[in-house]
Design goal:
The complex is a heterodimer. Helices cover 31% and strands 31% of the residues of chain A. Chain A is built from ten helices and 26 strands. In chain A, the strands form six sheets. In chain A, strands 14, 15, 16, 19, 20 and 21 form a six-stranded antiparallel beta sheet that branches. A five-stranded antiparallel beta sheet of chain A has the order 1-26-25-3-2, covered by helices on one side. Chain A has a five-stranded antiparallel beta sheet with strand order 6-4-24-11-10. In chain A, helix 4 (60-69) crosses helix 5 (73-79). Chain A starts with a helix and ends with a helix. Mean pLDDT of chain B is 85; it is low at 38-70. Classes of the chains: A alpha+beta, B mainly alpha.
Chain lengths: 528, 324
């Protein structure tokens, strides 16, 4: 007794929550609609930086440039994960909390809904005229017959009906609304599951394939390390092959307007493919929007460029290099950069580096540059280095020359660095008895991306199911309608009152009531 | 490419803009003429309110909805202006349809390949949607708020977004262009009208609180405006959901992966999440309809950013603005 008194003197005291009480409180907060709303808004805000700041997963080079250009903010944002927003812990925290909140909200609701679907509509309220929508009329017919007609009318409107007593019908319609709502939310879990399956069991790899060459699907054949999920066994990949016979590219030539002339219009890779080495060959094409399906993967044409075929002879006339060498485009007119590495040259290794220009010109200001993406006036502009191609045996990029342990070769007069300009069919004799270089012909290459994503069907099916659920939940109205009959003023007449309840604002509810009533009048006749 | 026909398409576009301008002015005259003269304002308002009360608590029939708020007691001048506005609006819509069709024939593809074409197509959908609505109920009061933004977008499209008739880049050569971009454009059109109604609702709410007299008195009341705005948003949201799904399917065809976190995809995702938040906010007890409506307007702001800024200034695989 004294205890309570002293407490009262201390003022209002919050109820003490036990540990489980706190957990329950947190859970209830997390699964509330208000929290879900806040998390949704937080998700929208958190997604913004990924659209504004360059992302590593999309363009690593641009990201590095951006960090270098922003001396203070750059490294700080890097530590906070702003260059991989969608893989960052804070972004994951938001969507995981959102999904926990979703599950915590949807599962109990599913349970409630399951019970609601199996239970009967509730008893009619005593006074129907107190409901938001209600109407009444006197019609011909005995009360039982009128009630039966009302029940039939409601059933035709897809209401579930039940009579708790002989003078009323309770009807409920639109339970599918909640079903749709729950299906929508549960399907979102399926979308996430599909994404997760793709990350765990999917893989992708890129390969640059010059015309005339064959790619065989093994992990080591890829240009960049194959990007595989943790559960993928890359040694068990299906060994299909793809040979690039020819690559066609067309560009806008008719329309001269800004931003249009020279724009790409069509890329087609003509390929021969086999399901495994030695199997029956099949000729087909890969185009943008028309990928090629092969066993266990899909092959996409995502890039293209030029791979001039170059032959290098040594001083005694032996062929030391003869390959289609891919040069990577760095602008829309395919001004391309590349390197020719002649490791078997004697006595020193030789490295050529420079430009391939499909429609070339040497601009006095900008240097070697291409004016159009099509090979109208192909040109190789190279400089030559000699020394060690791979210092310390470090792995090297195929497309750039590491000149840290090489020296530039000068021209015959020894006045400047050697500059080689070649057109197809031309040969240049290298100074100092180093042999010669020949630009044989122009080839193109296809940039292929080969991918496998076993989760995509789960994601697609879930997304479509979510859409169906969403439309269902937005279109259908949940309504309860009650009908009560009582004997009319004269024999053979019945007073019918109809009342309706809706979950939300419902302009159509009173229309339903009038409809039901007019069916009764039509069926039994009304006399005023 | 048929540049002559594209030229005719542009002429039709300018004509449509001229006709829409006249239509907009006539709608403005209509609204101005709706404002009751000072003397009879009070009585007119009283009658309106009485009618509303009778309708609301009456023993039977449905409560008066939106459109009836603008009664039949409009002055002949207003009625004439609205009639002209509507005819001109329909004429302009027809000319715009002609322009878009000629453009499509001229470029020998579905005319949704760059920002100029998105803009004109979206405007066409807004006007068609408005025309359909106007056959169902009295939405003359909405005319000004629809034709004004349409004219603004058409003006931008025909000047700074204009792109010469030409083909499209390889990744756009797909039947998914027809599906994905058309539905995206329709849903943006629906969201635009929804946003116009949302803004009118918030303004009406303030007008009702202050009790001042303006033409807003003759528009549907705040509750009705909110209901109409919500009705449009729940059409737009599934359409936008479909847009994102169709875009993902197409992205897988064209770029090899159904979701690349490309800036345009991120913005579409953000728009989807904001409108989802709007639907939640509207269903959350303790949140007012006005607060929820602000969320819807935030969603529309995101659409504007997505269209006007991401398309032009962001490095994206969706860089199809055609603005070079």
């Amino acid at each position: 007794m004294t205890d309570t008194k002293t407490r009262r003197d201390e003022g209002v005291v919050q109820p003490r929550l036990s540990f489980t009480g706190w957990l329950r409180w947190i859970w209830r907060q997390l699964t509330s609609m208000r929290t879900a709303l806040m998390l949704l808004l937080a998700l929208a805000v958190a997604a913004v930086p990924g659209a504004v700041i360059p992302q590593r997963s999309i363009d690593a080079g641009r990201t590095a440039d951006w960090i270098a250009a922003h001396k203070t903010a750059g490294p700080l944002l890097d530590r906070l994960g702003f260059y991989e927003v969608y893989a960052s812990p804070w972004f994951a925290a938001i969507y995981l909390l959102l999904f926990v909140s979703l599950v915590g909200c949807v599962l109990p609701r599913s349970h409630v809904h399951w019970r609601a679907m199996r239970s009967m509509p509730p008893r009619a309220p005593k006074r129907l005229e107190r409901l938001t929508a209600h109407t009444s009329a006197e019609v011909d017919g005995e009360p039982e017959a009128v009630l039966e007609a009302a029940r039939a009318a409601l059933r035709r409107k897809r209401f579930r009906t039940h009579s708790h007593d002989v003078t009323t019908v309770s009807a409920e319609g639109g339970l599918l609304k909640e079903t749709g709502n729950l299906v929508f939310h549960l399907s979102l879990i399926g979308v996430i599951a599909g994404v997760a399956i793709g990350h765990l069991l999917g893989w992708k790899g890129d390969v640059i394939l010059p015309e005339g060459q064959t790619f065989a699907n093994t992990a080591i054949r890829y240009d960049t390390p194959i990007n595989a999920g943790p559960w993928v066994d890359t040694s068990g990949m299906k060994p299909f092959t793809v040979t690039l016979d020819k690559l066609d590219a067309t560009f806008e030539q008719d329309v001269k307007g800004k931003g249009q002339f020279g724009s790409p219009r069509d890329f087609t890779a003509y390929v021969t493919t086999t399901d495994q080495p030695g199997a029956a060959a099949r000729e087909t094409t890969i185009r943008v929007n028309h990928p090629l399906s092969v066993p266990g993967a899909t092959v996409f044409l995502l890039g293209n460029g030029y791979a001039p075929k170059v032959t290098v002879h040594d001083g005694s006339g032996n062929v030391v290099y003869s390959e289609s060498t891919p040069f990577l485009a760095r602008d829309n007119n395919y001004t391309s950069l590349g390197a020719i590495k002649v490791a078997s040259a004697e006595p020193k290794e030789l490295g050529f580096t420079g430009f391939f220009l499909p429609t070339g010109t040497i601009d006095p200001v900008r240097g070697p540059i291409s004016l159009f993406p099509q090979a109208l006036k192909p040109m190789l502009v190279l400089s030559l280095y000699e020394g060690t191609l791979a210092p310390g045996g470090r792995p090297q990029s195929v497309y750039t020359l590491d000149t840290s342990e090489m020296t530039p070769v000068t021209n015959a007069a020894d006045t400047d660095n050697l500059r080689i300009a070649l057109q197809p069919g031309q040969t240049f004799t290298l100074p100092g008895g180093r042999g010669s270089i020949t630009f044989e012909e122009v080839h193109r290459f296809a940039g292929l991306s080969i991918r496998h994503d076993p989760g995509k069907w789960v994601t697609l099916a879930s997304a479509l199911l979510a859409l169906v659920g969403l439309v269902t939940s937005l279109v259908i109205r949940r309504r309860r309608v009650f009908v009560r009959v009582s004997p009319g003023a004269e024999l053979g007449r019945t007073l019918v009152s109809v009342g309706g309840l809706a979950k939300d604002d419902d302009d159509g509810l009173s229309e339903v009531l009038t409809d039901v009533l007019s069916t009764l009048t039509a069926a039994t006749g009304e006399r005023r | 490419m048929n540049q002559t026909l594209a030229g005719y398409a542009n002429l039709a576009l300018y004509s449509a803009m001229a006709v829409f301008t006249l239509s907009m002015l006539a709608y403005a005259v209509y609204l101005a003429a709706l404002v009751p003269a000072r003397a009879d304002t009070r009585s007119a308002l009283a009658t309106d309110r009485e009618a509303a009360l009778v309708g609301g608590s009456g023993a039977g029939g449905p409560a008066p909805v939106a459109a009836t708020a603008v009664g039949d007691d409009v002055s002949p001048r207003a009625r004439k202006a609205a009639g002209m506005a509507r005819s001109l609006g329909l004429l302009g819509t027809f000319i715009l349809l002609l322009s878009v069709t000629m453009r499509g024939i001229a470029v020998e593809r579905w005319p949704l390949g760059n920002m100029f074409e998105f803009g004109t197509f979206a405007c066409l959908f807004v006007m068609v949607f408005y025309a359909i609505q106007s056959t169902r109920r009295d939405v003359r009061w909405l005319g000004l708020f629809v034709t004004a933004p349409v004219l603004l977008v058409l003006g931008l499209a025909s000047t700074i977004w204009y792109t010469q008739a030409s083909g499209v880049m390889p990744s756009l050569r797909s039947y998914w262009l027809v599906i994905h971009v058309t539905v995206a454009t329709i849903s943006v059109a629906v969201f635009t009208i929804g946003a116009a109604l949302a803004a009118l609702y918030l303004y009406q709410l303030r007008a009702e609180e202050s009790g001042g007299r303006s033409f807003m008195n003759r528009l549907p009341d705040a509750k009705a405006l909110e209901g109409m705005s919500y009705g449009l948003h729940i059409i737009g949201f599934p359409l936008w959901t479909f847009t994102v799904i169709a875009g993902a399917i197409w992205a897988r065809q064209a770029w090899g992966s159904y979701w690349n976190w490309d800036p345009k995809e991120v913005m579409s995702f953000i728009i989807w999440v904001i409108y989802a938040a709007y639907l939640h906010a509207r269903a959350t007890s303790g949140m007012s309809r006005a607060q929820a409506t602000w969320v819807a307007l935030a969603g529309f702001a995101a659409i504007l950013v997505n269209y006007g800024i991401v398309n032009v200034y962001f490095v994206s695989q969706h860089s199809y603005s055609g603005l070079g």
